[in-house]
Structures are given as structure tokens and as C-alpha cells.
């Protein structure tokens, strides 16, 4: 059984297909049709809802794509949909802002925008505080084909600057008490009699239940796994949800590395990675939408083994490691050795990624990362490049160069590295290393880019890295996109 709050109503679900998404649950089971299905793939934001959960005994509100969230992920949390905002016949201030600023035309996407604005307002600082960057980030995962975004951004400003206590603030203590009462205390199971989803609470429980069900699909954020249900119409007979395991959601900074639990959402990874590697932080802000980053995990991005995943090239260049667990046994593997072939990894049956270790930055190394995609926000890479260089007295003492989108797996550019290592860090060396990239990769042509384009982009990104390192200190760096 799982338990959660549907706004203020306690819901206990025992016999429910665990393949049911939150979007389906709201529309088909609870009759709340304000939440819309636009794309069923997490791209448009029309299905945006807000989930509240306890963090250090305080309420935290985050947006999610309900089309990519399975109901089991709601266990112990509060689900808020657009119907819940109106109170005693009066529109919520974010809804009123959309009306006042003419932020809606056909209205299909409006509920999603309203929920993103609601979370933005809740997470804003003091009253009358408006941060345009935060507003853009909050709304980047919501698409509108009618209005244009100026009036919606005006609504965001009004909602933040005219922030007033609402019914959620008035009932905060009550909500906290309710969430404490339903906090998970033992492994939960959701099943319709044929399909089931298990939610262990500890790494030890996960290891035990996964060993007993090695064919089960591991579910963290579900932003990729859910597509098998929503896009390919497959059924997932057994899932194991790792989102309740506190140990696997922690981000800890040690003397020599950052240790990131495999179930930590990307949003929670941002501060630690951005502080050490600003380029990593910049790329994470372009890692899909805020709704996706609130769900998706670093462990999932690695475990998915996509050749165009955004984080693996950066992590490989930095020399990151994964800690793999099977039963009571653990092993540590360099991330570059984890990927073997397209969607084939070194992970054994019953083995799972427990954590990721990223070396901390040192002053003697230069790290640069670039993502090239067709649009700046919420898009998949055509090419992703990462360069981690140690340059001593004008000579490349050590080079680690990795790319995504250039092969069946994210991988290092061995010939390019060999050309750079021991050579002067100058234009001539860089051009020779660019030529060597042709020996490292034979990229594919697909709908995102041709093989010729990908190779030229990869070479140009190495040139960009060199030019930026020699640019005046006042020059502003811009992550590449097309």
C-alpha cells in the first residue's frame, strides 16, 4: 500500500496498476481533468503538477511532469494540481496574475504554466522579490503555441512581487503533521495482482529485493523509463522504486571527491557540482527542464547508458567512478569502463549503481564543457564535449577529453589525448589534435545531425576551449548551441 495527500485528502492505494502515471491517476481515477496531456514525454509542461514533501521538517514544493511520474513516487508526499489552487471561490494569486497579464489564449497549456508559477512563487525569497533568471528557469519546461512568453513572464513578476499568504501557508502546520503521520516506515508495495512496484527504504533492502527480482526495472526519477509506458505502450511487470532510500539521495563533499547518491535528483546535485566546476553547473541548467531535473537523477542518466546523455562525457573527463552494489558486495569502477557498447554496460544482473564519486577540482587543471543542441533550453545534445586539462609551463601535462553523441557510447578521445599530452598548448597542437579526432570517432548521421557536422563540431569545440583559455579575463563565456 502507498499513502499520499491529494491536496488535503489522504489517499491510500492498494490495488492499482503501478504503470499508472500521476497524469492518468488525476484524470481517470480522480476526475481532475485540469492537468493536461500534451506530449506524454515531458517536453511541453502541460501536465505540470507540484509535489510537496518534508525536508528537515519543512515543506518543499517542486514541479514535476505528471506524465512521466508513476503513482508509486507519491508515497509519503503531497500532490497539488491546478484545481487545488482556487480557494473559497477566489483565484489564487498566480492564477489572477495570468488573467491580469493576459497570459492565456487557447488555455490548453495554461494549467501547466500556473503550476510552474505556483512553485516559483512558493520558492521565491522575500515578498516583492523577483528574479528574472529564476522565472525563466521555472518556465523553460512549459511551452505555449499561442500567446508568446512576454505576458506570462509579466504574470510571473506580478505573482512574485505581489506574493501574499495563501491557503497552503495557513495549513502548513496541518500538512506537515499529516505528512509526518504517513512517512514511509517499511517497504511499500503497489500491485494490481499482476504488476507490482516495490519501494525499499534502505540500500540493504534494495540489494535484497533486487537479488530476488533481477529482472525488475529500477525506477528512480522515471523520466526515461516512463517513456516505455507512455510512448511505446509497454507494460513493466516489476519495478523497484529507489526514491525512498535516503542513503541514495545524499550529496556529500569529502576532501578529495563529491559523493552523489544514485537517486539524488539533478536539482540537488547542482550546488555541489557548480561550485567545483562552473561549466558542469551551466550544463545542468540546460539539462532538460526544471521539472525533469526535479525528478531525473545522475545515477539514472548513467544507468540509462544513452550515447547522448549529458552528464557521462563530463564525468568521464573528470575521472569519476561509480560504486556498484550486489547483495552485500560493492565494487568501484571508473565510469569510462562502465560503458561497453550501445545500451550495454558492465553492470551485472542484480547489481545497481549505489553512488557516483566525482573528484574535486584542483587549481592546476582546466575544465571546460560544451553542449551543442538545436535550441538552448530543454533539448537533447547533438554533441556534448568535455575537456579536463593540466597545463604546466605552457605544456599539456595531462589531457582527458570525452564526447557524447560521437559514438555508440560516451567515450574518451584517445588519439586526441595522445596528440595533446606532452605537447605545447598552442594553435598548432590544437589543430593536430582536431585532426586526431577523426581517428577517434566515426559518428552516425541521424535526424539531429550528420556525421560530417558532428565531427566538425567536435573539432570546433576543442578550438573553442583553446581560444577561451587565451581570451581576456573579462570576456563572457557562452555555452555553445545551434
UniProtKB/TrEMBL annotation:
SUPFAM superfamilies: 2Fe-2S ferredoxin-like, CO dehydrogenase flavoprotein C-terminal domain-like, CO dehydrogenase ISP C-domain like, FAD-binding/transporter-associated domain-like. Residues 190-363 form the FAD-binding PCMH-type domain. One of its GO terms (molecular function) is metal ion binding. Keywords: FAD, Flavoprotein, Iron, Metal-binding, Oxidoreductase. It comes from the Bacteria. It is an enzyme of class 1 (oxidoreductase). Its EC number is 1.17.1.4. It holds the Pfam family CO_deh_flav_C. PANTHER family: XANTHINE DEHYDROGENASE (PTHR45444). This is Xanthine dehydrogenase small subunit.
